[in-house]
Amino acid sequence: MLGRMPERPPLVVAVAQPPCVAGDVAANARAHAEAVRSARARVVVFPELSLTGYELDAPPLATEDARLAPLVAACGDTGCIALAGAPVQDGGDALHIAVLAVTGNGARIAYRKMWLGGDETRRFTPGPSPAVLEVDGWRLGLAVCKDTGVAQHAADTAALGIDAYVAGAVDEAQDVQVQADRALRTARQHHVWVATASFAGPTGGGYALTAGCSAIWSPGGALVAQAGPHAGDLARATLC
5 in a domain, yes or no? Predict the structure, then answer.
């Protein structure tokens, strides 16, 4: 007689929007570490290019960069996985806008943004394929900003078998509802949790004011948790 498969535990996810200093990876890694320590979450999602700011000319960040040490330490102390945004160059000359998965053991590239917009196309190369990160039996589909507005991206990611669609974003302050509409569409069409970490405060690329209001939606499309519009705000929810 076959034994029953163990049930997976609930997954606590937080969406964070730490203060950001343009191009200062060391300061931003410390701010990320503070968010991780205060989040009390297994997974903390950060905005697009959160470790450099939305500075499209920022140098690529190596996964072994010593400036990430405070964030690695915070993840190790709390058992958290941080999904942080950074420009990367992972072989050859191609540059990507990436999601780094950071744990107590270090950082690795978990996903490269597939759908670039505006001036991003002048410097960066689209990522090759959707990606899934598995955490405690939960399958998290990864996305960055414009990806979330492309129905095909959500569909292709969902086809990999996901429980949640998590994204880092940078949007104008007036586009809070755009973020929500995209999340609702994905949650309802693919019956998955959606978590979007949205940049708050000014950053590069002409963003004098960004949206903030990072949020988490249930598979039915209900808004479960939402941060405020300010840098430093954070929201969390338990996926079960």
Answer: no
- Predicted TM-score (pTM) of this structure: 0.96
The answer to whether residue 6 sits within a structural domain is no
Distance CA 232, CA 2 (A): 49
Q: Is 212 helix (H, G, I), strand (E, B) or coil?
A: coil
* Residue 178 tokens, joined: 């755009």
For 104, the domain range is 11-239
In a domain, 178, yes or no: yes
How does pLDDT run across 74-88, given as a tens digit for each residue? 999 999 999 999 999
Closest CA to 121 of 154, 92, 149, 96: 96
Bridge-partner residues for 198, per DSSP?
A: 169
**Domain containing 88 — which CATH number?**
3.60.110.10
CB 95 within 8 A of CB 109: no
Q: What is the pLDDT of residues 53-64, one digit of tens each?
A: 999 999 999 999
Strands 11-16 and 234-239: antiparallel
List CB contacts of 2: < 8 A, sequence separation 6 or more: none
Pairing of strands 215-217, 193-198: antiparallel
